[in-house]
């Protein structure tokens, strides 16, 4: 699929769940990861099972953002509780037709702002090493890679990576200073690369 830039303001972002949303999130993950990484349908099950649990919990400390262009889902990101003071970033994906217009950055910052408002001490995420654009986006927001291990997702051997972002205390201040020096001042709405989960 050819990537074409779409202005981020042509896309609406919402957090209210409607019938069909979960299926659309699973479908988008299944199609894009099959096309871009060669993943099989087991990856859809990997996405669907915890996504269903997330909806059933209906916690005020968890949220799913859906980015739509018209009636089409073109991006998503979620925050789920990993521990009482730890949030986990999940299901982060931007359709190739919308990458490069700042949508990924906008979704990421919405999720991080939510974590801060909830009083989380840190945010963690798991990704895989082939997703280099996503890694750059995470690092630009102050995340640091803390672990790598071999794994298997969607029938494909991968190198899983864990990233962490402290949100308060001395480690948080240092992470934000490092990100600002390395990547320039980070602010909402700045154009940038969009990543996947």
Structure keywords:
5 helices, 36% helix, alpha+beta, Aminopeptidase, seven-stranded mixed β-sheet
Class by helix and strand content? alpha+beta
Residues in helix, % = 25-40%
CATH architecture: 3-Layer(aba) Sandwich
Can you write the helix and strand succession as a string?
EHHEEEHEHEEH
CATH topology: Aminopeptidase
CATH superfamily: Gcn5-related N-acetyltransferase (GNAT)
Mean pLDDT, all residues: 86
Within the largest sheet, what's the order of strands? 1-2-3-4-5-7-6
User: So how many helices?
Assistant: 5
* Contiguous runs where pLDDT drops below 50 for at least 5 residues: 179-197
Largest sheet descriptor = 7 strands, mixed
Could you tell me how far the N terminus lies from the C terminus, measured between alpha carbons in angstroms? 19 Å
Strand content: 25-35%
Q: Which CATH class is shown? A: Alpha Beta
Number of strands: 7
Total tally of structural domains: 1
The whole-angstrom Rg is 16 Å
Shape: globular
